[in-house]
Amino acid sequence: MAQRTVLAVLYDGVQSLDVTGPVEVFAGAELLAPGTYRIRTASLDGAPVRTTSGLTLVPDAPLAAAPDPDVLLVPGGAGGLRPDPRLVDWVREHGPRAGRLVSVCTGATVLAAAGLLDGRRATTHWAYCDRLARDHPAVEVDPDPVYVRDGHVATSAGVTAGIDLALALVEEDLGRDAALTIARHLVVFLRRPGNQAQFSAPLAAQTARREPLREVQRHIVEHPDADLSVESLAARARLSPRHFARAFRAETGMTPGRYVDRVRLEHARRLLEDTTDGIEEISRTSGYGTPEAMRRAFLKALGAPPAEYRRRFRPAPTP
């Protein structure tokens, strides 16, 4: 393939790992296949920028002198929440020219402010999804996935999700083996599917205020293979099914069925990643009952069947 220019935009208050994570992936690809990616960085005035962690990054050039990139990377950080209007103007002008427009974390706010996410599905760090949706109602904000691709625009969740997205782009360009080699070098998984949830079911749901409902939450997590119907869970909470379902949603932010589905999926994922247990056994202990039921759940939530998920997440050790 022809060499692609990757341009990472720098600004004061950028999150350093939002920049260096994806850049290390593209740099690894360039080492593996020389002539694949040309990596450049630029800030508004070409001056060094101070990251949220206090590190200083020195850009290659001012944005005005930067080449039109094939991949325009807009990282996030505190400075991305209230972006400099000059940065927004530059991204508005140059973003549509990029073959791929990519954001990490709150970099999505910069793209949204430039109007480049209007009518598109996008994500950002879970802590800022509500804010992005409120401030930019024309954007279809999805708080769940690790990353979202809508045409040539790709947005990712917080920090390490930028690595996942960069690996996905490299896999698309150079194939799975190349991306796997880079992932091994960085000691990361290849790769979290884009629609994998940003965080676990217990973290995604609020903790219920009342002890009977908290106990039900604990029971679901500890016994995913049990009878977790609304009727059974309501009996455990000593409530009627209707009252239980209403109270559970009010106190946790999700329905009992949604919570059970996420817990079972997470349990099955952990077993696929961390054990050599067979698919049939995992489907049983995770509460799916049959491999086919688990397969349908994985395809719906992650876009990959269990065997393929395991293959991606448990690569063979490097000789």
TrEMBL record:
Cell cycle as UniProt keyword: no
UniProt keywords, alphabetically:
Transcription, Transcription regulation
Q: Which PROSITE patterns match?
A: HTH_ARAC_FAMILY_2
Q: Which domain of life is it from?
A: Bacteria
Q: Which residues form the HTH araC/xylS-type domain?
A: 214-312
Cleaved signal peptide residues: none
Asked if the record carries the keyword Amino-acid biosynthesis, the reply is no
Q: Which PANTHER family has this protein been placed in?
A: ARAC-FAMILY TRANSCRIPTIONAL REGULATOR (PTHR43130), HTH-TYPE TRANSCRIPTIONAL REGULATOR RV1931C (PTHR43130:SF3)
This one is known as GlxA family transcriptional regulator
Organism, scientific name: Streptomyces levis
